[in-house]
Write a structure and sequence with these properties.
The chain is α+β, with helices and mostly antiparallel strands and about 575 residues long. About 35% of the residues lie in helices and about 30% in strands. The chain is globular and about 90 Å long.
Length: about 575
């Protein structure tokens, strides 16, 4: 498809814990849309500067070290919770912060392609629950995105693979280790038909957890050597996080790395800790052990032996770590495959799904099925001899069921003359409802009086690919039906709530889009300035001052030249 000037575009968005990005299917390829800085990945970060202006993306990420109290990252991990952050005068929830990132992505796409975004498909971890999916949909609405389909990240990665290999036949396992979540999906690809067979995961395990473990180990080493307590100062803790992230990436290609924290304490001391890959892998062993459980669960649900797997696709930036490759080889006795860029595969697959939803001719030979990641059912009371046990979970549509699907179960009244039954709807896998997630409740009234157990009531769950759950309850003796629709895609905010949230977000957007490269350059330079000393620091300070002078001229050519000089100095010092 060649985009027409008068047409809107349908895109795929990977709203990630660390980075977010967008893709569009064009001329038979999934294209990643760069942001105004020319970068394919936009940091999922939000910050507020001294003037109360909100920064999103690279400019915000650069302030994580210098202004940690005014910067928020990793908020995707708190989607669906009541957690809030105060930025400037605003108190923001995870969905509001995510909306700012999504809005930035949408504007980048529209400016790059010169067309409005008419619809988007957004991805979530397969093991995101009801509250998390609802919060994601709310973020999309606040950002002004029309989103009818939210798909699982491993499913998106499988779509990207199937689109690029239309004639292949393979049994695949997708391991998706991103910044904050770990998902496993088992699937079969046959001549353009992609069938998701099983899925499992850990919504609180990701690359950030590996960094956290490094931070804790390094903090202990520094304390043992009588160094300053990094945990006593939030800004120093942020510096340690950045240093551990750099060391983690360095260990991808090298056997040794240094954790270097500069500007510590009143004397601006530098703390250095040499680490090697074997040592760090021992620190990470408990996290790798946690990865085994979802892998085994997904294979068990699929009924596959490990030997039946043809390829293991690695998705997510954290899969670049050698320890993950070693884990895959130990489990499957074969190396993992990075056929697509790990950071980009999910967004590319979301773009394919957007084209599928629009019946685009580019994907006319591609078919995909998905599965329910959790079991759905109702509470019931069981009778065991003379005893009744309540609060039991009756799964009606079990996890792993291929969607769309419809399943039913028949219950009966418990008491003589019972005229009403209340059903509570749950999501989860535990035998007791109290350990699952309640997603709805309804009552069926007007049941004809009858002896206990003689009024059958059929409960049918119908679940589609858009996340719409229809619960149809029929009293068989009368044929009377009660219908409850639960929109599990998350579209739960009222129009008024969405408009208020969008208005609040709009008031936070701070500057014309063309100013973003300048803000990002300054934030990056000032973050580096805080970490270096001596002559390089003085040189960088002069360059920062000269660039600020260029900005005062409002001369586009001078500003561009000054920004180029500043970034050249920053690149030079960062690489050295």
């Amino acid at each position: 498809m060649t985009l027409r000037e008068d047409a809107g575009v349908r895109i795929g968005i990977d709203l990630g814990t660390i980075h977010s990005l967008a893709s569009v299917l064009m001329d038979g390829r999934a294209i990643i849309i760069p942001n105004p800085l020319g970068e394919r990945l936009t940091p999922s970060a939000v910050s507020v500067d001294t003037q109360g202006r909100v920064l999103v993306g690279a400019a915000a990420k650069a302030r994580e070290v210098t202004h940690p109290a005014e910067t928020v990252c990793n908020f995707k991990r708190d989607m669906g919770t009541e957690r809030t952050w105060t930025l400037g005068r605003e108190t923001m929830r995870p969905e509001s912060l995510s909306a700012l990132v999504l809005s930035e992505i949408r504007q980048s796409v529209e400016e790059h392609l010169g067309q409005p975004v008419v619809e988007a498909v957004v991805t979530v971890p397969a093991y995101f629950g009801e509250d998390q999916r609802r919060a994601t949909q709310a973020a999309c609405e606040i950002a002004g995105l029309h989103v009818e389909r939210i798909i699982n990240e491993p499913t998106a990665a499988a779509l990207a693979y199937g689109f690029g290999n239309p004639q292949s036949e393979a049994r695949l396992v997708v391991l998706d280790l991103g910044g904050g979540t770990f998902d496993v999906s088992v699937l079969e690809v046959t001549d353009g038909i992609i069938e998701i067979i099983a899925s499992a995961g850990d919504a609180r395990l990701g690359g950030e957890d590996f960094v956290e473990v490094m931070m804790e180990q390094c903090r202990r080493r520094f304390l043992a050597s009588d160094a300053i307590d990094l945990g006593a100062h939030e800004d120093l803790s942020a510096k340690l996080r950045a240093a551990c992230e750099r060391a983690k990436r360095g260990l991808t290609d090298a056997r040794d790395a240094a954790v270097v924290v500069t500007g510590v304490g009143p004397a601006a001391a530098t703390l250095t800790l040499e680490v090697n890959r074997d040592e760090v892998h021992q620190w990470w062993a408990p996290l790798i052990a946690r990865m085994q459980t979802p892998v085994r669960q997904a294979l068990k649900d699929a009924g596959w032996m490990r030997s039946a797997v043809d390829q293991v696709l690695l998705v997510g930036g954290a899969t670049r770590m050698p320890i993950v490759s070693d884990f895959v080889a130990s489990i499957f006795n074969k190396p993992g495959v990075r056929e697509l860029p790990p950071d980009e595969a999910v967004a590319m697959g979301a773009a394919v799904q957007a084209a599928l939803k629009a019946d685009d001719a580019q994907v006319e030979d591609l078919v995909v099925t998905d599965i329910a990641p959790f079991s759905l059912g109702v509470n019931h009371t069981g009778e065991y001899g003379s005893h009744r046990v309540g609060g039991l979970f009756a799964a009606i549509l079990e996890r792993g069921t291929v969607l769309p699907a419809s399943r039913s179960h028949v219950f009966t009244t418990l008491d003589d003359g019972q005229r009403e039954v209340t059903f509570q709807v749950y999501q989860g896998e535990h035998a007791l409802c109290e350990h699952n997630t309640k997603i709805g409740e309804y009552s069926v009234k007007g049941i004809p009086a009858a002896p206990a157990g003689e009024q059958p009531i059929e409960v049918r769950f119908s679940y589609d690919l858009n996340g719409l759950l229809e619960i149809e309850t029929t009293v068989r003796s009368t044929g009377k039906t009660h219908v409850l629709v639960i929109d599990r895609s998350g579209r739960g905010m009222s129009k008024a709530e969405v408009e208020r949230a969008r208005a609040a977000m709009a008031s936070l957007k701070f500057h014309p889009r063309e100013a973003l490269p300048n803000v990002a350059a300054l934030e990056r330079a000032e973050a580096l300035f805080a970490t270096i000393t001596g002559e390089p620091r003085a040189m960088l300070g002069e360059c920062i001052g000269a660039f600020r002078a260029c900005l005062e001229t409002q001369d586009g050519k001078l500003i561009s030249q000054g920004r180029g000089r500043l970034l050249a100095i920053v690149d030079r010092f960062e690489h050295n």
